[in-house]
From TrEMBL:
This is Uncharacterized protein. It comes from the Eukaryota. It comes from Acrobeloides nanus. One of its GO terms (cellular component) is neuronal cell body. InterPro entries: Ly-6-related (IPR010558). GO terms for biological process: olfactory behavior; response to odorant. It holds the Pfam family Ly-6_related.
Length: 124
């Protein structure tokens, strides 16, 4: 029996803000995230996609934003991570909104989530 169909595949940008590279190399972020194609300021908002690598994705593309805090104070800047929701984080995400968008194919490259809303249970 042959069933005609296809598996939906997106192409997601794969990058993190340049500030994350040192934290990643020292092992702090690599405990939680897979290495992106690029560490660059182009990943930040406003986003400049020129030269940013892509990864295939059977789920949704995700943009994570985090306040850039120095010595306990917000700097007014944000740091950004972009990638595939199922291959970005080593432990997966626990946000029901993300799961809903994926299940109903409601968007492509449109989910923007603050890091604190999906990573709270992995804090050390």
């Amino acid at each position: 029996m042959l069933i005609a169909g296809f598996i939906r595949t997106n192409r997601c940008y794969s990058c993190m803000s340049a500030v994350y590279e040192t934290l990643f190399r020292e092992g702090h972020l690599s405990k939680y995230f897979y290495e992106p194609k690029n560490f660059t300021a182009q990943c930040d908002d406003p986003f400049d996609p020129y030269g940013i690598g892509f990864v295939p994705c059977r789920s949704i593309c995700l943009t994570l934003i985090q306040d850039f805090v120095v010595m306990g104070r917000k700097t007014g800047r944000t740091l950004t991570m972009r990638g595939c929701s199922t291959t970005m984080n080593r432990y997966g995400f626990v946000n029901r909104t993300i799961a809903m968008f994926d299940r109903y194919d409601m968007c492509n490259e449109c989910v923007v989530v603050w890091v604190t809303s999906v990573m709270a249970h992995h804090q050390e």
